[in-house]
Every structure is written in structure tokens, then in C-alpha cells.
Write a structure and sequence with these properties.
Four copies of one chain form a homotetramer. By secondary structure, chain A is an alpha/beta fold. Chain A has two domains: 2-142 and 314-327, Rossmann fold (3-Layer(aba) Sandwich), CATH 3.40.50; 145-311, Dihydrodipicolinate Reductase, domain 2. Helices cover 28% and strands 20% of the residues of chain A. A seven-stranded mixed β-sheet of chain A has the order 8-9-7-10-13-12-11. In chain A, β5, α5 (130-135) and β6 form a beta-alpha-beta unit. In chain A, α6 runs parallel beside α8 (206-214). The interface between A and B is large, with 47 and 47 residues.
């Protein structure tokens, strides 16, 4: 039995990790702390919830791994302390996702707080970085939108299935849990319910992360806010390279992910392979799971990729646990069904 | 005071028309009928609702105009009868939207029921067909998705602002009222709530209508089902022609629609022109109105158009009333605020 | 054409009043101000919304009536200023609802800010205070929960239909707009959506108001928060007095409200009187209206009253406009359909 | 490892059982069948879902226990066949809940299909029938509403804490999953979303079940339909017996359920015992769990009990698994965390 600390445990991703760890056979959350220096400990808000202790970096000495569930900017100093103690760190914030400190500065509006640590950070899109994650001391856990977009795109880009000159469009829709637990105008019930809105058009902070990981900045990304709590659906439009088609792309993805427990590629017409009623991925099919479901369909001159994940699991805490399992030498899928 | 008949009054679009007509100063619904031959009259389901009479085409003789709120296929014979009586007809179904009977047949899976009437049908996207509508005997009211997509696109295509070779992507999201009042799997609460799904990828029946009205079939259209009741938001991606940009497109749309009461073009950064808090169109800003709100933003190599309407008003009954007002010589905005 | 000021126009009730006044033929909102002294004017947050000016009590001199849409405690001083200028005032806050300053103090936790004005305030449950409202200078607009509960109860209590010794239970469920526009924990989307909760059990501030207006404190009131935006449904349980029954209570209410345009009493089994499909009141039947729908049904030894209103109209701004219409000598239903 | 059959696996309760059994260490669903004689097998509707085989009663010979997830009326003959084979049966339908065939006939409108089996059926409200369930061959799994109402009431009635003459009011609110998977008017998204309604006032089929289990018919039960998918909240009003109070009732419940893993009694003011922020039970605290959370509060002359469960777990499949675990000699909480 190994142990982890969760720093920043009161937010949605911290709580999701606690829930996942309840079913983990080889990992326990023995340190559960707030991320804010000087903040008071929090007794359980509800029956059955854990207490959250005050921040005490010394307690990190007693665990094997550390999850950082903190806002961007706050993770760096805690990460440095944990690494100093020789601990494995998975950071769920954006602090170590962008390799270039200058891109971080222009994206987040302030200099990178720990540029020296950027070198050793591994970008933890698990299915595409498994070996690097296994040997990493510090993993930057991918953003939720990027995860939903990169899983379908990376194999197709690598295989030359996508026209290298044409723009790629990622039209993404997310539930409100992606905006976090703190109340605000954007997530006020009266502003979300029976409503729908695009935001950050051309300016969202996940675009540079997507560009870096895909190795191209011709991806146009537009996020939208759904009146749901969980889930991201990304509708992605690509121009097939000569010789490529929906069928070749589907085959490419099916082959690439055939052995992956957390990615499922739908058959032609989005069918459930054997079912009489062809379907496309839906949020509810992946909510409360670490799954990514993918479908591929032709639409006029383009090919449409539909990708769904649970933003709090595969888009955050689930993938973080996948990564931590690997870093601690445990079975990758442990605690994730 | 003039009078109209509503045929097919028990569905969502028929009821919306009844609500709109309650506030109309010069038009009354004096005939309110079901569309199904042989169907029994329907007493009001709720206090305050109107009774719906059995179908009796003879009663159309006593009105000035006829709204057909029927499923596609059912409208044609009623339209023929009403036209025979010399009545002005606005058909909210798909029966007269496609000019080419062969396209109708391949889209709807059966021969067109009244190909001889197609000639005289005017496609009633009011802001782009005002004069023709004024003189029309039969107006084919546009589909909800096409309305949300064509209003931003038509002026830009006409002005040569859009690269004529590149694909145009219309990623549309609609509330469930677009699927009608009859219960079914797709609109079961347990299948919609806390869910989101793409459907009809590459195959939706509104695509040929969009292609015909835009004069190009390079528009790739993907509809999605939102867990809301009302509203459509379309996110449209276009490649600017040489010399064009988000700024020139915004100016083009602002000029084209400056005098239009039902189209509003947002200022730069989607702002409310004078507001400190720049915003993009939201469903709730147009629900229960006949408005189309439009914003234009640059995003990498593309320009993004965000367009919102209420699918039951500007996307159906509101636009139908706009058209009927014109056909009967009334003020176009009467009954629509 | 007469004119009114709306003070506190940025909240939900202020905006609802602005919407209602757009359709009023004899009343205009010529002064639209924030309620907070020293607060900056607010340009429109969205296209088509009005600007909200800074607070300037001097401008009240130029209107006929004043609506106070302010939080409790803030209304009193503005009311005093307006009354000084001889203006008719409708206060939508709780400041003048409780006649006894001691009850106010124990309910709201601070002394009443203007006890001398309490004397002249009329409690404006319009259908039960029409003559007093007509002559009033200051009307205390009833709370939303009390309106939904008192309209069915008052006639039955007056007619001796309810056992005077037994408790009366009012189990009420409200949409979130009753909690106002300011974001907070309680109205965070993640805390409301797919959730339901009772609150203020035995302690809600509307209980003393209900007790005062009903003339009895044996009414047990429990509010709940629905995952909807608009509407209140109150399920009320009463013990029939000897000789009384669901039938006699229904007859009593039907007779009492026969001529009222804003109260509708359902027929036996909650039917729509003539309909084949008996129904009970639903939120959606009164949303965006000033209606109160009532049904009466027997259930074992008790009689159940089901009462629905739109909390922002009959429960706030609609009833406020009813009252202002009366105070200014206009038709009571003007602007309310 | 033991095995069970699920008959009627395509509905919500059948699917919930399948999900629960995935985590069960000692029980497997080896037979998964539709309940309708002659119905075709169903391939998985979605990737990852199980196939559902055609009905074949012979296959029941190979399992240890049988869950019947069928509509009322259909369960009896399958139950008889399974009992004949010596299998343990948990019936989730209403067929064996009412001991008196005459009450069944008047409640369900047709004679009881298997009155001879009624004798041996044990009403499986687990916490109040544990020993009987352990020895039972046939368990009638309680209804969802009754479970939420009886768990708080039974100990108080047994302890004489409730005035034996006064009515008890159970005002219950349920998510739509209680109405099942088949689409219909009542569960159409457009009829549920942004709506709320009471139904079956004085006539709901769960009332006789509640009366039988509580040993009194003075309980007045009113169900309502929430715009949520999962969860029931019942607000229950009782008159304290002489000497009783909210405090004594809370103590009574806390003591009665102290050792129960699936019932949690909140401390005074509904607090989380140690928390600074007193709370009442909420749907989301029990969704996807087999928990019943209870709070007790004084309100005027009455005491209010607030009770929440997940209708698909403690209100159906979770409690069914509790019962089956006992019947098969397994740990009661296995598969339920």
C-alpha cells in the first residue's frame, strides 16, 4: 500500500481524486490539505466528506506521491518543495504544461514562477507519453479541452492522414465543473441554465497547449459552456490528406488505440459496432468514467471527429491517477475500473 | 383587422404563433385546426389554452392567410386547397423549401407531393427576400438551423469576403423544442438532461437547404442537441478572402443589417458596443424574441461567426409572422415587438 | 402617459419590471437607477438592455410613482425621500411588510429603519387589499412565497372552511431567481443542477409575514430550492372544518375569484374544466405571466391545495405593477395582458 | 462466487444492478434477459453495455438468485418459475408488496396474478426486516417513495414519539428516473425541464404500501416530479406525542440507526455534526449511493423530517442487492461500498 498527498483538496478535482482513491487497492490519500498558505483547516462541509487540513509542506515527507489540485501559479512552489523531498508529483494545474516560459508569460499574464522546473516536467497525455511518465518526477497533467482534442488528433497527424496546410477546427463544449467550485457570474445558475454560450473565442488559454502538443498552430479552438455539470464533447473538423478518408482515419485510430483500456473508437456510422441503432458518442456514456469515446464520420469535403470525455476524470483527476499509478510502479488502470 | 388560420396548432410552432398573435393588433387567429384528416378536435389541455378544431378545409375560405404548422409531407395538399381559395400561405414545414424535386426526394425519401407548386414558392428568409415575400402567394418558411447560419453568411458571401474555395463549417447547437412535441427516445428527459450529443453528422436534412440558399455546397453542417428547450447557437468558421478580416466582415454585416429590426451585430470583441464587459451572443438574450444576434471574431487563420436565434421564433413562428405580415400588407414587425 | 422610477434596476425584479413596462400603454420608466448610494452608473451589460444611472434622489421629483427593487434595509430611506416628494411608492423589499417593528427586528436582526412609515404602509396582496391599495401612498409588495400561500388560504380561512385548531402546512418549492442575481454558494450551478434541498426549516423570514397576513401562526412553512429559474409551487395541507370538504373549498375559491383576471381555480380532479385529461397546476403554465393557478383535492383526512405562481411576476414585479396601476388610477391589468 | 439472473435488464433498475454488480466481489450477473416473452434479444445500445438475451426461464436453473426488474403484473409468473427451481427471488416490481390481494386489486385495477405466493413474500425494507429477509425465498423490494418515508417514520412510530391521532404528511419529490426508461408525455424533456408538478394527489399507488408498512392509514402522501434524473427528497410533517420533540425524535433515530451503514442521522440544525455550516440533506449527497440521510427540525407545533435517497439505489436496485446479499449469505453491504 502506497500513499499520496492531495494539495488543494476542496475543489472539484481534489474531491474527484478522493472519490477515485476510495476504490484503489494500493494507494491511499493519507495527507489531504488546502493549497493556500495560512488558510484554516476545513471540517467536512457534508457528512461523509473528509476534513481538509491546513497547508503543511513538512507532511509531504511521509507520502510517496503528491497531487497538486491548485490554481495555476500556486502549484510551482509546492511542486518544488515536494520534488526536493524526492516525491513524485502530478500537477493538475497549468503551471508546467507549456515548455516555453515566454509562451506561459504571454498566456497567463505573468512570468513563469519556476522556469527551472519546466525542463523536467513531462506532459502527461498518458496514452502518448507512457514511458516518459513512468520515469518522470514531475508530470504536467493535460488540460481538459486539450485531452479531448489531442487523443483523436495525434495519431492522425502522426500518420499523415490530415492535410498539413488546412486549418483544423476544434469546436468544444464543456460542462460547468470545468470552471471550478468558486461561485461567480459565469457559473451562476441563472446564467447557465437554459442558456449556452461561446467564450474565449480566439483567446482561450488552452490553445497554446493544444498547439504545442500537436506540433502545429493551425488548430482553431473555440470553447463553449454547456448547461451540464460534467463532460466535454469536441467536434473536430479536419481536411483529409490525399488518399485519406473517414474510413482510413477510423482504421488508424482503431489500430492505434486497440489495446488502450481508456479509449474506444466507434465503428462506421458511429455505431456500437454490433448494434442495430448506430450512435455517436454522448456525454452520459463517459460521465464518471476515465473513458474517451471517439467517432469518425465524413461530411462533405471534411472529416468530422467527435470526442467525448468526463472533464473531471480523463480531463483531470482520472488521467492524473493514471499518471501517478505509472510513476509509482502500480497498474495503470488501478482505481479507474 | 385581418384573420388567419393555423393548421397544426397543437405543436410547438402552432402554439408559439397563437402566443404571438395574442399581442398582434391587426391579425387574429379565427381558425385553429389540427392538421390530421379525421382527427378529433382537441379540447384545451390546460386552462387558458385554445381548443383545436377538427380539420375542415372549407373554413379556410373565411380567413385572409393560412399558417401550415404540419410535419413535412402533410402540408402540400392543404397548401393547394388554400391557394385554390386565393389565400396567402406560409408553410412552416420543409415541403416547399427545396426548389428541385429531385433534391427533395433524395433528402426526404419520397417524391415531392406537389412539384407544380414549387415554382411559386418563395423561400422566406425575410431580410433577404422581402420584396418577393410581399408579392408571394406561398412562402416556404426557412428551417431553424438554416436561418441561424444564412443570416451571417449571405452578406459575406455576396460581398466576396469569404474565400470561395475553402470549406465553411457550421457547428450548430439547438434546444430540444426543435425536435417537436411528440415524446420519443431522443427527447426523453433521461436522455437529454446532463447530456449533449451530435447527430446527423454529414446527413442532416437541413444541409441541402443551406447549400441551396447559400449557392454553394461547401458548407459542412453539424447539428447538436442541447439540454435546453429553446434556442440555437451556430458557431461558423470561414476563411477570409484576400483583404478580408474579422473587422471587414463585422463592418459588412453591421452595414447590411443596420436598418433591420431583428438582426443585431455586436461590436468588436463581441461587446455590447458601449459596455465595459465584452460579451458574445447567448441563447438567453434572444429567447422569446424574433432577434438574431451576431458576433465576429478572429481566431488564428479563420474568422468565427457566432449566431443565436430562438428556434421557435426567428427560426419558425416569428419569421413566419414576419412573412405573413408582409404578404397581408401589414407592418412587418407587428406582433413581434 | 404617466411615468415611474425604478430604483435598484439591475436585479431580477427590476429587469422584470422593465420588461413589463415595455408593453404598458400608459406608463413609462423614465428614471432607471441603481439603489446603492455612490455606486457608478451601469452601461448595458447586453445589447438592448437599458443603462442604469447612478442614484440621484432628486430625479424622483419628475415621476409619478416609484418602484423600490432594493434589498431589505435599503428601501426605507429612499421610500421616505419619495414620499416626501409626494410620490406613490411600491416597495418590493421586505421593509414594510411586517406591521410590528419588534417582529421585524427579531426576523431581520436589526431594528426597523423607519418605524414611523410602517403605519401608512398597505400590504399589497392586490386581490385582498384592492381598495386600500388604491388609496395608499406606500405599498409593501408581498413576498413571493406568501403570495403563493395566501391566495388559496385567505378565502378559506375567512369562510371558516378550515379547522381552526389544526396546523396548516405549506410545503413550498421555488426556482432560483428568488435568491437574486448575485452569485453565491447556494445558487452556484454545480450546487443547484441535478439537486434539490429544503432550507430555512422552521426559521424562514417569510413565516412571520404569512402568519400576520393569515391572522394565525399555526401555519408551518418549509421552503425548498428547485433546479429551475422561475416559479413557485406550494403544496398546502389543511384540515377541513366540520361540513367542509375539497368540494366546498373548491367552490369557495371559485366563487371568490370568479371575477379576478389573475387567479384561476381548477375544476374537480384538477382538470382544465373541459379537458379529458385532468391536470394539476404546473410551473410552466404560469411562467412569464401574472397568474395564480389553484387546484383543490382530497387526500385522506386532509384537503390539499396546489398553488403556482411566477415568483418574478405575481410573486414580485407583476403584483407590484398591479398595485402601481391602482395607485395611479390606471387599469389594474394594464401591462400584464 | 455466486451468480444471479437479471430479468428485465434494459430498464433503469436493471442497468443500475449491472453497474453495482461490476464492483461486487462475490456475485456475478451470469444471466441477463429481457422480461417480455417473445421479445428479441437486444444487442448493446452503446459501447460497453451488455447484450440482453431473450427470455428463457430454463436458464434460471443455473443461477443462485433472481432479480425481477419488470413492470408490475409481469413479475408474478417469472417469480413462480424461479421459486419452483428453488431460487432466491428479489422482485423490484409492486407485485408482492401488498399483503392483501383485495388491496392490490383496488390499487392496480386487476386481480392479483399470484395470490398464493403473497404469503411467503417478505417486505424487504432491509433495516427493518433483516432476519426475515435472510430466511426468505421471495422478497418484495419496497417502492422508492415508501423507502424514503418509512425509514424515518418507523422508529418514531414504534417508540410512540408521534401523536397517534394527528395526520402525518409526506410531501415527496422525485427525479424522473422513477418514471422509467420508456418515453412518454410526462417525461418528455419539454414537459419536465424548467417545470415542476404534483401528481397523483390522494390517489398514488404507493400510499397503500406506505399505510400497510407503517400500520396506519393516516399518512397523507403527495408525490411531485422534479426536473432531475436521480433522487427523492421527502419532507415529512409529524405532530409530537406528549413529551416528544425534535430533539427526542432525533435521538431516537440516531440511536436506532447508529450501527446501520446505509442510514445517517444529521445532528441538530441539520449540521454535518462537526461542520461550521449547518446543512440539511440534499439529493446530491446521496446520488449514486445506497444511503438514506435524515434530518429532524422543529417548525412551530410540528416536527419536520427531511429524508433523501437515490431512488435507483436505496429506492430500488441498491436495496435489492442488500436483500439478495442477505438471502445468499453474503455480507449485506458487498457491492454497495
Amino acid at each position: 500500500m502506497k500513499s499520496v498527498a492531495i494539495v488543494g483538496a476542496s475543489g472539484y478535482t481534489g474531491r474527484e481524486l478522493l472519490t477515485l482513491l476510495e476504490r484503489h487497492r494500493h494507494l491511499r490519500a493519507t495527507v489531504v490539505m488546502t493549497a493556500r498558505a495560512g488558510a484554516a483547516p476545513e471540517p467536512p462541509a457534508f457528512p461523509g466528506e473528509p476534513s481538509i487540513d491546513a497547508l503543511d509542506l513538512g507532511r509531504l515527507a511521509h507520502v510517496d506521491g503528491v497531487f497538486l489540485c491548485t490554481p495555476h501559479g500556486a502549484a510551482s512552489s509546492i511542486a518544488a518543495a515536494a520534488l526536493q523531498l524526492g516525491k513524485k508529483v502530478v500537477d493538475l494545474s497549468a503551471d508546467f504544461r507549456l515548455r516555453d516560459p515566454a509562451v506561459y508569460a504571454s498566456t497567463y499574464g505573468s512570468p513563469h514562477p519556476a522556469p527551472d522546473l519546466l525542463q523536467q516536467a513531462v506532459y502527461g497525455l498518458t496514452e502518448h507519453a507512457r514511458d516518459a511518465v513512468r520515469g518522470a518526477r514531475l508530470v504536467a497533467n493535460p488540460g481538459c479541452y486539450p485531452t479531448s482534442i489531442l487523443l483523436p488528433l495525434l495519431p492522425l497527424l502522426a500518420a499523415g492522414q490530415i492535410d498539413a496546410e488546412a486549418p483544423i477546427i476544434a469546436d468544444s463544449k464543456s460542462g460547468t465543473s470545468g470552471a471550478g467550485k468558486a461561485p461567480g457570474e459565469r457559473t451562476h445558475f441563472g446564467n447557465v441554465h437554459e442558456n449556452f454560450v461561446a467564450y474565449g473565442v480566439g483567446t482561450h488559454r488552452h490553445a497554446p497547449e493544444i498547439h504545442q502538443a500537436a506540433g502545429t498552430d493551425r488548430i482553431v479552438f473555440t470553447p463553449h459552456l454547456l448547461p451540464t455539470f460534467r463532460g466535454i464533447l469536441s467536434t473536430i473538423y479536419v481536411t483529409p490528406a490525399p488518399g485519406a478518408s473517414a474510413a482510413t482515419m477510423r482504421a488508424c485510430l482503431a489500430e492505434r488505440y486497440a489495446a488502450e483500456p481508456f479509449v474506444r473508437v466507434y465503428g462506421p456510422t458511429g455505431s456500437g459496432q454490433s448494434g442495430p441503432d448506430p450512435r455517436l458518442p454522448e456525454l452520459r456514456l463517459v460521465q464518471h468514467t476515465n473513458q474517451n469515446h471517439l467517432a469518425v464520420a465524413a461530411s462533405g469535403p471534411l472529416v468530422v471527429l467527435v470526442s467525448v470525455i468526463d472533464n473531471l476524470q480523463k480531463g483531470a483527476s482520472g488521467q492524473a491517477l493514471q499518471n501517478m499509478n505509472l510513476m509509482l510502479g502500480l497498474a495503470e488502470a488501478e482505481g479507474l475500473r
